[in-house]
Specification:
The protein is an alpha/beta fold. The chain folds into two domains: 116 residues, Helicase, Ruva Protein, domain 3 (Orthogonal Bundle), CATH 1.10.8; 169 residues, Rossmann fold, CATH 3.40.50. It has 14 helices and nine strands.
């Protein structure tokens, strides 16, 4: 193979797995808990959530910018919780209050959900969830609800989620609720007087920041190892520094850049991923870029989504 221009990258299917000996692509952008990176902040977030659930504190909240690994953390949490804990994970909260309540009951596996007709009143849905919670409490099982992208919940839906937390014993909440969302979630709770009661009930808040440059290097190596590599590609120091600057430490952006950089390396039959390949990758996925030839820095003018 011969080195090509940036446009060549777009014409070649990402079949570099066999070349590098990967079992799977290491930098896919789906939220796969098998690839979760144990950064200091992600470990702290998991520890806070585990503590809050074990202590049955009720409401817990995790925030972070788009692409910082919140959904991956939420899925890892659900996998981490062991039987007899009952869990429900809502990944698409853009629902009406009634639709959300029905989705919660369905995800918990409550037998009552199948007995409820479409159009069942919200009060009946709340009662069905309450019966489920009491049944689980009598059986000695904890119940955890995780709602991802919670900033997208309507005010009515958030209020109904708050009502679910009213089911309690004199000593503990019967439902542990984890709200996961972008910083706008915290801003809404702070600024909307209708959500004041909900904000006051949140026992633990934790914000996940972007990765620093050393964490970016560790993150790249971590994902390569998880993918089961045989002929490990090596990202040079300059390449990693460029990825860290351009991605601003956002894992989803790192994945996009590294995926395209590996493709550039495959085109050149190279196991060393250098800064020039990273620059080609950045150019191929950037929406708007500025190239500063003086220092070789490529700045993305828009977010990689």
């Amino acid at each position: 193979m011969q080195a090509g221009c940036n446009h060549d990258i777009l014409k070649v299917n990402p079949m570099y797995e066999a070349f590098y000996g990967f079992r799977e692509r290491p930098f896919h952008v789906t939220a796969d808990p098998a690839f979760i990176f144990p950064s200091h902040h992600h470990q702290e977030a998991m520890a806070h959530l585990t503590y809050g659930i074990q202590q049955r504190l009720g409401f817990l909240m995790i925030t972070g910018e788009v692409g910082t690994g919140k959904t991956t953390l939420a899925k890892a949490l659900v996998e981490h919780l062991q039987s007899p804990t009952k869990t429900a994970l809502i990944l698409n909260p853009a629902l009406s209050a009634s639709q959300l309540l029905r989705a919660i009951l369905r995800d918990f596996g409550g037998q009552q959900e199948g007995q409820l007709k479409v159009g069942t009143m919200r009060g009946q849905l709340l009662e069905a969830i309450e019966r489920f919670l009491l049944e689980q409490a009598n059986a000695g099982a904890a119940v955890v609800l995780v709602i991802d992208e919670a900033q997208a919940l309507s005010t009515s839906a958030l209020e109904h989620v708050r009502l679910l937390s009213n089911v309690e014993t004199p000593k503990a909440k019967l439902l542990q609720i984890v709200l996961v969302g972008q910083p706008e979630l915290d801003q809404r709770l702070a600024s909307d007087p209708r959500l004041r009661a909900l904000r006051q009930r949140i026992a633990i808040r934790y914000h996940i920041p972007p990765l620093n440059e050393q964490e970016v290097a560790d993150y790249i190596q971590h994902r390569i190892q998880i993918a089961g590599v045989k002929n490990a590609p090596h990202f040079t120091g300059d390449a990693i520094a460029s990825i860290a600057r351009t991605s601003k430490g956002i894992p989803r952006r790192i994945n996009r850049i590294c995926d395209q950089a590996l493709l550039a390396g495959y085109i050149r039959e190279s196991y060393v991923i250098d800064k020039s390949m990273v620059r080609e990758a950045q150019a191929s996925i950037s929406i708007e870029e500025e190239i500063h030839h003086e220092d070789g820095l490529v700045k993305m003018g828009d977010e990689i989504r």
